[in-house]
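User: Please fill in residues for this 271-position structure.
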């Protein structure tokens, strides 16, 4: 395995670890499985790292700065202008892996240096509700991961050749899995994952509001890019398919008739 393939593989492995940490971080899963602290040293309401004394205001400002830096990197490196500048220094073959690595580092830093603001706002004291929130969150993450898995993830994250696979993304307008019923199932799963919680604290609410706002911005960019790429075909798809929630009439029709064509969503934004 040459150096490029090693870099791509390690970048993807690190990305996988950081995404697993995100699920643990948002869901506070260490309270269910304490051994997770060995692998994931923080969550949204607790951390094992030593913290300097802080007040509520300084913690909010600090956490907002972390969120802002992550959003700036994640958006900035996806722009055409940055890609053109980076092409002078980074091989096109490494473009996606470099983006994945940089985004993973920034998300890792956000979770590692996050200051918990654990004052509760709303909580469920009955086990049926707290357990329900936990399972709803897991369903959300499952929707996100299952949707990503149908969108050629190895090529998307630049590691297909590491496993001896060729390029399979053809740019065709197609319909994988849940894209038959909603246009952005990845964001649907992500938002379910972060908002389904048994205890809503100030820090959790701050994180959720920031990530929801960034998700709305990201979806707008993706939708615009797909309209530019596919034109009237995607515009018609927008008219017939909900963004995050299926339309009942359309869902019944697609269940009983031939399914529609659905795009390789997120391709424009994730590159």
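Assistant: Residues filled in for all 271 positions:
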């Amino acid at each position: 395995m040459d150096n490029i393939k090693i870099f791509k593989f390690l970048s993807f492995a690190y990305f996988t670890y950081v995404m697993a940490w995100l699920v643990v971080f948002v869901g506070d899963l260490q309270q269910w499985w304490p051994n997770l602290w060995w692998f994931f040293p923080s969550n949204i309401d607790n951390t094992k790292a030593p913290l300097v004394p802080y007040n509520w205001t300084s913690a909010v400002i600090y956490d907002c700065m972390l969120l802002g830096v992550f959003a700036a990197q994640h958006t900035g490196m996806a722009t055409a202008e940055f890609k053109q500048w980076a092409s002078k220094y980074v091989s096109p073959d490494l473009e996606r892996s470099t983006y994945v690595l940089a985004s993973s580092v920034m998300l890792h830093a956000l979770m590692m240096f996050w200051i918990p603001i654990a004052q509760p706002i709303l909580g469920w004291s009955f086990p049926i509700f707290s357990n329900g929130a936990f399972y709803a969150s897991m369903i959300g993450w499952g929707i996100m991961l299952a949707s990503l898995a149908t969108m050629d993830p190895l090529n998307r994250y630049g590691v297909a050749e590491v496993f001896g696979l060729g390029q399979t993304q053809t740019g065709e307008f197609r319909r994988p899995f849940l894209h038959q019923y909603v246009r952005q199932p990845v964001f649907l799963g992500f938002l379910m994952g972060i908002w389904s919680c048994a205890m809503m604290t100030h820090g959790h609410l701050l994180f959720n509001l920031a990530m929801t706002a960034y998700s709305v911005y990201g979806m707008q960019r993706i939708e615009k890019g797909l309209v530019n790429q596919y034109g009237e075909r995607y515009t018609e798809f927008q008219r017939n398919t909900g963004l995050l929630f299926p339309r009942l009439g359309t869902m019944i029709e697609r269940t009983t008739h031939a399914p529609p064509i659905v795009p390789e969503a997120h391709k424009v934004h994730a590159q």
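For context: The chain has eleven helices and two strands.
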